[in-house]
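User: Hello! My lab partner asked me to get a predicted holo structure for this protein. The small molecule is nicotinamide-adenine-dinucleotide, SMILES included with the sequence. Please write out the structure tokens.
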Amino acid sequence: MTERRIGIIVNGASGRMGYRQHLVRSLLAIREQGGVELADGTRLVPDLLLVGRNEEKLHTIAERHGLTEWTTDLDAALADDRFEIYFDALVTNLRVANIRKAIAAGKAIFTEKPTAESLDDALALAREAKAAGVVSGVVHDKLYLPGLLKLRRLVEEGFFGRILSVRGEFGYWVFEGDGQSPQRPSWNYRAEDGGGIVADMFPHWNYVIENLFGRIEDVYAQVATHIPERWDEKGERYEATADDSAYGVFRLEGGTVVQMNSSWDVRVDRDELVQFQVDGTLGSAVVGLWGAKIQPRAATPRPTWNPDVPDAHDYRADWHEIPDNAGPDGFDNGFKAQWEDFLAHWAEGRDYPYDLLAGARGVRLAEAGLESSAQGRRIALEPLTEA
Ligand SMILES: NC(=O)c1ccc[n+]([C@@H]2O[C@H](COP(=O)([O-])OP(=O)(O)OC[C@H]3O[C@@H](n4cnc5c(N)ncnc54)[C@H](O)[C@@H]3O)[C@@H](O)[C@H]2O)c1
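Assistant: Hello! Below are the structure tokens for the protein in complex with nicotinamide-adenine-dinucleotide.
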């Protein structure tokens, strides 16, 4: 079997996402399984160059995983022809400058979202990548969650009939940091450092919605900073300047209404940290990260409103869990699956659908959400198919 090596620069290798999901769960896992199999049977095997600020951290990570190449010098990494792909998992506000350098160095780009803090910057990156003829990809990991893979199956099989509405709840309690330590990096709560739940989550909602339900025609959002002060990694108090909750309503081409609550200030009374209820003329589904249950029209109970007697009906019992049907190995890690898909597209010279332009649509939804909230009005979104 032919083997082809592919050099990947991993910038932000010590970060929360860069280390756990991208390095360990994706790229190292791909190496361990012997690479990605291409259509012609060739196996594409990644060679990794770790990049970061802190030499000690990089050294420790490299040793732990048997890697030999790391550097704190991004320019030197970009000048190295052995590495053809640049991956970025840095904090959001450093992304544009670094990706821009990587495009100029002729590297293919794979990046975390959001691709930029403003639509202008996001579009500029998409244009620059196109002009330089480099392949680009942006994470869209939520589409690979088992629950959402099951949802896609339901949509494609026509289970719902006409989809009327989608209600999504995402969130959990993120500790403020004065007592128990916070479970997310503090920059997420500072607007000046690229934080905010809209910038973080609306790019995800954009690709989830446009790939499963249709194009978003307009958005109305109310955002809030419910908790105005938090404590950082060093236990120091800081002002939380970024939005920590967002209540969005998206109207789609075709009439479906999607309502999404995103919050780091809610306590969970759901089966999972994210949950979507989809209601259609022929049936409904409730899906989470993993699970998916359905209720077809023919098995829908007939509730009647009666405030005089306690309702003894167990509504939750009316739903049917749908099986994984994912083969003997179950579902793969979503980050790894999207890496494999991106690498295969890159190697086979195919256009990648989740590119910097798709990433820019995600940034646009975030920007429009914030604008809607600031102005108290609905913002229309024209089709965005060219940078
Ligand atoms: N796809 C997802 O589900 C998902 C989830 C969380 C975060 N993210 C995105 O991933 C990115 C990273 O988030 P995270 O939670 O891993 O953050 P993090 O703070 O854990 O990691 C950020 C990385 O940036 C580096 N960094 C920070 N400041 C720097 C500086 N001044 N110079 C050079 N490097 C610097 C850090 O060393 C670290 O490697 C963000 O853009 C975020 O939006 C995506």
